[in-house]
Amino acid sequence: MELFNRELSWLAFNERVLQESADESNPLVERMRFLGIYSNNLDEFFRVRAASVRRLNAVGKKKMEGFEGGPKALLAEIKKIVIRQQKEFESSYQKILSQLKDHKVLFVDHLQLNTEEAGFVREFFREKTRPTIVPIMLSPKNPFPQLRDTGIYLCVKISEADKQKVRYALVEIPTNIPRLVHIPKRSGEVQKVIMHDDVIRMHLKEIFSIFVFSSIEAYTFKITRDAELDVDDDISKSFVEKMQDSIGHRKKGATVRFVYDQEMPEEMLGFLKDKQRLEAGENLIPGGRYHNFKDFMNFPDFGRRDFVFEPIQSTMHPALRDTNKSIIKTILERDVLITYPFQTFQHIIDILREAAIDPKVISIKINLYRVAPNSQIINALISAALNGKKVTAVIELKARFDEANNIRWSEGLKENGVNVQFGVPNMKVHSKMFVIKRKSGDKNQLIAHIGTGNFHERTALFYTDCALLTSHPRIAKEVDKIFRIFKNNMDRSVYRELMVSPFNTRRKLNSLLEYEIEQATNGEEAYIFLKMNNLVDAKLISKLYEASNAGVKIHCIIRGVCALVPGIPKQSENITVRSIVGRFLEHSRIMIFCNGGDEKYFISSADWMGRNLDRRIEVATPVFDPEIQKDLKFIVEACLKDNQKSRIIDAQQKNRRYGSKTAEPYNSQMEIYRYFRAK
Q1: pTM for this entry
Q2: Catalytic pick from 196, 430, 472, 587?
Q3: What is the sign, positive or negative, of the torsion defined by CA atoms of 480, 481, 484, 489?
């Protein structure tokens, strides 16, 4: 069975992000921001995926799935691809700079400043930069300092004039000051900007003025550390204490990448390698003059509307536009599907706010994976608790890179009377659910939320997600049942409607696939639409190959990693795979099965990966409402029509664009926005 290697498929996905930086149909500043997204993605890849491969190499694993060779050879291939992409990155960056210059925005260094401008930069350095930097002198005899993961450092070489001696020092680029410094301009003049790195370079003589030197120069580097958390089993510590300890240890993780200015002198590079015990292998990557382009995710627009995407206004759901009507009462009458960012996330905040003050609401149960730094969701839960509701929040402390934020929120919720639980031992809780229990007369009413995305106001502005709000008795009761797992880890209730990992998702998916195979084998129409972030699970991919060979038509929209290889004769010739990378991050998981003409629709929190199916709490819900089914079908079909931001995933992984240049332009994300705006 042929599969793509997971790590190489991920790098192919990130190359699609890089392609967007070179796509001149995107506004200039948005293209620069795509470079920031690419860089941020790559940091996380090395912290997580490359680090895992290094661990496998350390324990002597011989073979990697989807790759002809072991971990060491895979790391070498990763390095080769990343270096090639870095060249594409630099080419795209220089082209954007050139085009910004055409629009009177000029990136400069100290040699391009006039006397007045140099004076401004000097004052900026003395007032803003100098108080925040902490130079560190390096000595061959002293221990090397503990460097911050993904921090940007200048390694400074001081050549003393009288002693023929070389000293080295480190200066970290401050993170609390914008990376780009805007130089004041007169009306109509070119807007000049200088990198903060260069502001510091300009003033090295001032920083190290106690030395008498013949020359002083600085070169950038950064390190990336293994971000895996090792949670100890000390029974005397609470789980929160263990997580806090592990977060601290992450800062000392092994170096998995060392990126340096390729102009760095050999003796300086050798010094840094020796002090950090780096080998000349897969974790040394030459780069350009500047690093940490993830800062460019917030690249300024210089007040130019034509430099950024035209703003879109999330619309209200048609059933919830009457703000004088109770949202809860609306959901008791009908199901509602909210699609972010096309429809507003505010509806989710509002239903929780309403539940907080509704005299008939008894309890709210919710599970939280990631929330916004200033979360209105958290505020609504605290409001409910203060109003006497029984509020239970199941918080996932192992949400990667959000652990500290989740610990902080758990403490704040506890202080305000919320019952906080920390999920299930040895499993992440990745589902996106809440259930509101309400007493009406002598009857209990349940209103449930099952979604594909987190309860996070900020990401709801640029992640595409779906959230089902329903009072359907069979679904809402089963959502309520799931919360028993968090209270009693031994609970193994039966779920007839929902797919709940790790209990029945794999079995239910296999059953749906088997029925399509049976229909195709009998000469009946059979098809499957799958939209998700990642498709990796080998067992389900094998089943899709079997379905393809039986004649089932399978259309996949996979944003990120795809281990399935489409278009292979006698294996996957009836399977197509596309990936859409555009203005919004495709995050919704939608499944549609032909089911003998009586289509079955599902939305899910889970991708098809082993961890999501077997080692996490994940939930997929059927969607029964015909109008909502119509909406989901439109989303999927729009993605398949996209000829602007869609790439073909094939055996070559070349990321070819889908559609001909002569075809009428069709951008699925904007068409979906127009569709919901018109409802």
Answers
A1: 0.91
A2: 430
A3: negative
